[in-house]
Amino acid sequence: MDAVLSALDYVVIAAMLLISCGIGVLFAVRAGPKQTSNDYFLGSQDVPVIAVVLSISATILSAVTFIGTPAEVYLYGPTYGLTALSRIHVPIITSIFFVPVYYRLKVVTIYQYIGMRFNDTVRYAVIFIRIISGFLFMGVMMYAPALALSLATGLSLQFSILSVGLICTFYTSIGGIKAVIWTDVFQACAMLIGAVVMVVAGTVKIGGPAEGWSRAVEGGRGELVDFRADLTVRFTIWSGAIGASFIWLSNGVARQEMVQRYNACRTERGARVAACLGLIGTAVIELLAVAVGMTIFAYYYTCDPLKSGRIGRPDQIVPFFIMDIFSSYPGIPGLLIGCVFCAALSSVSSALNGVVATAGQDVIRKLKPGLSDFKYTSLAKLISFGFGILTIMLAFLATMLSGGILQTIFSIAGITGGPICGVIILGMFFPRANSMGAMSGLIGGVAVGVIQYVGSQVFSSRSPPLPLSISECEISVNMTQLTSYTSDQYTTSITGITGGFPSTSTLPPTNSDSHAFFRISYLYLQALTTISCVLIGIAVSYATSWNDPKVADPKFLTPFIARLYAGSKNNHNSENTEQMYLRKI
């Protein structure tokens, strides 16, 4: 494309990156040379609720969300928004049943809980899985938006990766969790402003909301809710209510970054409020991203940049739209591109701090229990710096991989979340579950996820996108590129996209039901692995000396379950001690 970033745009991007860097310096200076491990990993449990709320929202929603969700909506319509609306119960479940356990135990990592509830074998198996997927996640979070930005705006790929990587490593290493949380606050506000600006400006350009909706309907994107009970349909009310619920339950209860934020709050009530509002905040931002996608479709509804060859990948649509709309307003493209950098920084810095907390609490503390707090905190900062450099190297390694391999890496990172969530559910809701059951459930859940994913690649489960048009393009279309792209990405016939909007008859026939299991919507994968882990864990626990609930420690159980089994606990503990615990519940 002809539009490029101006000098003022680069100044704005640099300013936004320096603000993030400055926040880290501020908290490092305020903490001083005697910063404790409690301050470094939990913020001395003195972080305001509103800051934790915004941090949770910014942490879960990455640059891939900022760029990828609008692209998903652009191709498949607004039914993706169901995933945000139909999981409203998840924040309530998280805050009532899970947060109290973490907060009362005062754990720094979820793996500490797993070790206390089961044993160190399960603990380190979960750590191994999570750290591997965590580094892959951070590498992709740096690489994916950098690639989209470089291809659509001309911004250097190396500059993007190094900017995010070095700044993120710097402020995370010196400032700890407080620097990460308060930087997240700035970055969450930037993402909100960026999304609103794109929606408002795009809506004005197309002639208002009514015209935008009219174009959406004409383009086959007027259906907001799909009630079909078909697991292979990409987005339905059921995939949102069931599949997306498990995805966000895992985000809320099985991610190390989230537990640190809950326990950084001043009170348990504050932690529960932060968990609830933070997860709701992610839904609000996602709905804004859906609005961005619909706005971009309405703007290009008769001249699709993909089909016309102006861009080569769907994830370039957002940066392309930014340059197309705002290139004549110096500074605005820089502000919006800076929002993409903020989205990348928030996710990578949170994941990095979580990995360092895991290395510190679950490895260093085990190997060197007598290490002084000052030396421990200093060592944690060095580890943070080293892990940050490793993440940058992985991001550069990703530049040499094909798109298909990147997709595989990202999917593997997603497969691990469900089984870990299943282990935590076993621990908190099933007093009879034992360590053998937890380990078997973890392995079984991962295995089920891998089998389903590999099968989905063999028995292609790719869903065709909704129709796109180039009927009013004022440029000549490269038909060779068009044919190649559509055969690989759209799986629609060339005759259906060279003119106006095609009818549904141009879409390929549905695959045979003989491999339906491998064609289920990707939204169900997390539910599949979580449920598999729980069922296998219960079965194996029963087969290997099912634990006596009388010896289950109530502090490791969710409050509701702890109350049910409190009476049997009296045979093993003093009545007065138990009554004190129950009053806390």
Give a written overview of the molecule:
This protein is mainly alpha-helical. Helix content is 70%, strand content 0%. The longest helix has 50 residues. The protein is globular, with a radius of gyration of 24 Å. The chain starts with 6 loop residues before the first helix and ends with a helix. The C terminus is likely disordered.
User: Per DSSP, what share of the residues sits in E-state strands of 2 or more residues?
Assistant: under 5%
Provide the gyration radius in Å: 24 Å
Number of strands: 0
Poorly predicted sequence stretches spanning 5 or more consecutive residues: 476-511, 571-585
Mean pLDDT: 81
Order of helices and strands: HHHHHHHHHHHHHHHHHHHHHHH
Q: Fraction of residues in helices?
A: over 70%
**Which word captures the global form?**
globular
Q: Main β-sheet, in a few words?
A: none
Distance between the termini: 60 Å
Number of helices: 23
Structural class: mainly alpha
Keywords:
mainly alpha, about 575 residues, 23 helices, disordered C terminus
Brief synopsis:
With 585 residues, the chain is mainly alpha-helical.
Explain the layout of strands and helices:
Elements: H1 7-31, H2 37-42, H3 49-60, H4 63-76, H5 82-85, H6 89-105, H7 110-117, H8 120-153, H9 157-206, H10 209-218, H11 237-253, H12 256-263, H13 268-299, H14 317-326, H15 332-367, H16 373-398, H17 403-429, H18 435-458, H19 479-490, H20 525-543, H21 559-564, H22 566-569, H23 575-584
Helix pairs in contact: 1-9, 1-15, 3-9, 3-12, 3-13, 3-15, 4-13, 4-15, 6-11, 6-13, 7-8, 8-9, 8-14, 8-15, 8-16, 8-17, 8-18, 9-13, 9-15, 9-16, 10-13, 11-17, 11-20, 12-13, 14-15, 15-16, 17-18, 17-20, 18-20
